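Q: I'm building a small set of examples for a reading group on sequence design. Run inverse folding on the following structure and report the sequence directly after it, with nothing in between.
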């Protein structure tokens, strides 16, 4: 579990393809090495990875097929800058929102517009990602906890403040770049409780209503009131 508050920007030192369907990444960092051990979790551009080895200034992770298929990690190259965050400690502050590090898919930057000290970034998302996006809701983009400024039927817009541009990789993003997207886990659970999938051979079966309703949820949360 993570917060979406980036601790530092690391540098990819090597990317080695190890057999079929997986690679080993070596990343240089400083802050994320403090107190870390082999077996600990670290988020690289929002993707939860397990530390497999450590050096004086680097750590190594094995990135498997599923992560390569769903995220941008397979497109990295030596010298690339990546957002890094250690797993959440529950005796610390939760400055962003609960981020699992389980990337839902990849979006593409459509526009970047600057207005005084604000930068507005619009990203094209697939319908299966957009369905979990709501205005003023939370989203993690390349591991960064952000608030959705607006949502349309094809894209989302987020407002980046100067500190985000300075302390993450977003200061170097360009229109057309791909971005790891993790939608808010709460919305996905709510949908799961309210709907169930039809039994079919389709990869995207239509949802049908379950026995759980908003009224039942209200009663569960608030109790029966006269």
């Amino acid at each position: 579990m993570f917060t979406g508050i980036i601790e530092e920007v690391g540098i990819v030192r090597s990317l080695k393809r190890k057999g079929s369907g997986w690679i080993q990444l070596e990343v240089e960092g400083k802050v994320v090495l403090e107190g870390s051990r082999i077996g600990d979790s670290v988020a690289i551009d929002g993707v939860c990875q397990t530390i497999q080895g450590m050096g004086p200034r680097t750590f190594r992770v094995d990135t498997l097929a599923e992560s390569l298929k769903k995220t941008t990690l397979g497109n990295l190259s030596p010298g690339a800058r990546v957002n890094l965050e250690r797993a959440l400690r529950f005796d610390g502050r939760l400055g962003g929102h609960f981020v699992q590090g389980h990337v839902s898919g990849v979006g593409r930057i459509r526009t970047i517009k600057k207005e005084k000290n604000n930068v507005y970034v619009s990203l094209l998302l697939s319908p299966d990602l957009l369905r979990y996006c709501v205005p003023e809701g939370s989203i993690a983009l390349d591991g960064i906890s952000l608030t959705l400024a607006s949502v349309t039927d094809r894209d989302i817009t987020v407002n980046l403040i100067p500190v985000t541009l300075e302390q993450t990789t977003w200061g170097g993003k360009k229109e057309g770049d791909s971005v790891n997207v993790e939608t808010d886990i709460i919305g996905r659970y709510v949908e799961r409780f309210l709907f169930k999938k039809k039994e079919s051979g389709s990869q995207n079966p239509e949802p049908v209503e379950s026995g759980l309703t908003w009224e039942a949820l209200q009663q569960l949360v608030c109790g029966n009131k006269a």
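The domain at 8-86 is CATH 2.40.30.20 (Elongation Factor Tu (Ef-tu); domain 3).
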